[in-house]
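Worked Example 4.2. Consider the chain below.
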Amino acid sequence: MSMRIYNLTIMLMFATGQVAADNLFVCSDSSHQVLQFDGDNGEEIGPFSFVANPTGITFQTLKSLHGISGDLFACSSSSHQVLRFNGQSGEEMGPFCSVANPTDLTFGSLGDLFVTSSSSHQVLRFDGQSGEAMGPFCSVVNPSALTFRLLPVSGDLFVTSSSSHQVLRFDGESGEAMGSFCSVANPTALTFGPTGDLFVSSSTSHQVLRFDGQSGEVMGSFCSVANPESLAFGSNGNLYVTSMSSHQVLEFDGQSGEAMGPFCFVANPIALTFRIEATECNGDVNSDGTVNVSDVLQVLNSWGLCEGCDEDINQDGDVNVSDLLLLVANWGQCE
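Applying the procedure from the previous section yields the following structure tokens:
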């Protein structure tokens, strides 16, 4: 699983204090299911959806912090497709796009979907709304995972190559190759942490390694996991890693790497992701944790037709008096 927009959202949620428990979703290679777990205690909620030979899952990019994440997208290596599921019910919405042997997927900052194909040795780009193919974005020999870096300001794409044992860096807009960022023996997954460092799992060393997010300099082993396959940071700042050997999702302190024990049990866990849920705070359009004059000025600056913008609080496609009334009704500190 890749972290893409997630890292930016987590940092913003910490900054505003708007953190709610996010349910964890894990692909089981044995049962061909996406299983859902309580984000607080790891208690299994039950099967969420069925995916034949799943290799990667992600939720559609959040539109803003004022709500919940969108639909679930999953790679199926058997059907050579990316499948789409309702993000709340798990109901299958059909194939979204076709990819030969997809291994991982993520949404970019503009909402497009990026998928790694181990057959074509490419990262492919698709329209995030229609699924229309937009062509190859970049070439990587045997890509296994990918993520965008959005902190502090860079939108570059990072992709693991299981053949070259490297994490490769590409310009996030053009796809131009920027060279090797760091070396990892048989990398299986990667994500940027809340502080901007890069974390990469290695199936050879059975470790999650930490690298400086700007220079790529190795900072050493962060934690040990038998056959790690996927990793993600939760809204509590801790790192969650799937272990194929122990059939567990393991939890580690996000600062020290100290093992906090098994979080949940899954037969052959292959990928995981969190569904982000933010505290509702209508009117806090700048996401600073308070509804105040700054939000009023931002709404006034976007007055008029503004479909899809955060200032359109009631999401009717028009920033007007109705939005101002909603803002005033929620005046003050968000709880």
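Residues 27 and 233 are 16 Å apart (CA to CA). The longest strand covers residues 44-50. Compare this with Example 4.1 before moving on.
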